[in-house]
Design goal:
It contains 16 helices and four strands. Helix content is 58%, strand content 6%. The protein starts with 5 loop residues before the first strand and ends with a helix. It is an alpha/beta fold and 331 residues long. Strands 1-2-4-3 form a four-stranded mixed β-sheet.
Length: 331
């Protein structure tokens, strides 16, 4: 087995937030949007914590969700907590409720959550081993540095057998990029697939999270280039715009999908990249991804010749080039 550039770990602070999320309305919201079978541990967690549905820590999580805060942001709160004391340290975000650390600490002790995790330890250990087998080979940091410049960061993968159960989330934690990923959803009400059942799909999910975190940072660091790119209407259908009405969301889906396709081709070969492109087309309702990949290849070629140092310098050209490429394909 080749060495993995991704470190698989199980962080109890993240598991705690996932357990709290299990007691909010999130599980029902997920099923309303996308009916699917969840992991047996997720079901067991909700049963175990059933009497604590109205704990202040849960109510605070619910309020944060309803305020419009993303799960990426909410779960980043884990980085503010020490362990096992669960006391907030420096860098606490402004949106965080003042008493949330104390409430989470009380939730942890009142529910004896660590005892429950001990009962479920073999399930988590198995998931971690599956993830390690899946996340081998490749050079994700090498490719991402071509777009975002030198990256002094490590990549961490946290298996998530609880909630959210159908989407991956992530954030930067100091010099670590953290991806929190559930196992791949199966058909109908079947339990999700093991992480190593389809390694390319597990790696693809994690890579997409790392790319999203870095893209957010990159655009914030280059506001002028971002504003210039925003003036160019992206060549996507109305069905895609209905799913992603904001320009940033449209751009992020195109860029992340394109870079992920390039990574899959480098790491697993063209058939896996083609399968991903087909899946992305169905999931996001757009056909422009092959053109996105083509325009990103041009950037990498120009970047290798020294024309660009980071993607922000190319971003306005990317948007214009994508429109031109799509028009030429329709002639």
């Amino acid at each position: 087995m080749s060495e993995s550039p991704v470190t698989v770990q199980i962080d109890d602070r993240i598991r705690l937030l996932s357990a709290v999320l299990a007691m909010t309305t999130w599980p029902e919201q997920e099923q309303d949007r996308y009916p699917h079978g969840v992991h047996a541990h997720a079901k067991a967690t909700r049963e175990y914590l059933a009497e604590d549905e109205y704990h202040p820590a849960v109510l605070a999580m619910q309020e944060l969700m309803e305020s419009g805060l993303s799960l990426d942001a909410i779960f980043s709160y884990a980085a503010c907590l020490n362990w096992p004391g669960l006391r907030a340290r420096g860098g606490v975000p402004e949106w965080a409720p003042r008493q949330w650390a104390a409430q989470l600490r009380d939730f942890m002790h009142r529910t004896r959550l660590r005892d429950f995790w001990e009962q479920e330890a073999s399930v988590w250990e198995q998931a971690a081993e599956q993830a390690r087998r899946a996340l081998t080979g490749g050079d994700p940091l090498g490719l991402l540095s071509r777009f975002f410049g030198p990256l002094n960061a490590g990549m961490v993968f946290q298996p998530n057998l609880c909630y959210p159960s159908s989407q991956a989330i992530g954030f930067r934690w100091g010099k670590r990029l953290v991806a929190i990923c559930p196992p791949r959803v199966a058909w109908g009400n079947n339990p999700p697939w093991p992480y190593d059942d389809a390694p390319a799909e597990t790696y693809q999910e994690a890579f997409g999270v790392y790319t999203r975190v870095l893209l957010h940072e990159h655009l914030e660091q280059h506001p002028e280039e971002t504003e210039q790119a925003r003036r160019v209407k992206l060549p996507v259908p109305n069905t895609f715009r209905a799913l992603y009405p904001e320009w940033f969301d449209q751009f992020a889906v195109l860029f992340i999908s394109g870079v992920t396709a390039l990574f899959l081709e480098q790491t697993f070969g063209k058939p896996e990249a083609d399968a991903y492109i087909m899946m992305a087309h169905k999931a996001h309702r757009f056909e422009v991804l092959p053109s996105v990949v083509e325009v990103l290849r041009r950037y990498l070629e120009d970047q290798a010749r020294g024309k660009y140092s980071v993607f922000a310098e190319y971003m306005p050209t990317f948007c214009t080039g994508l429109r031109v490429t799509e028009k030429l394909k329709k002639l």
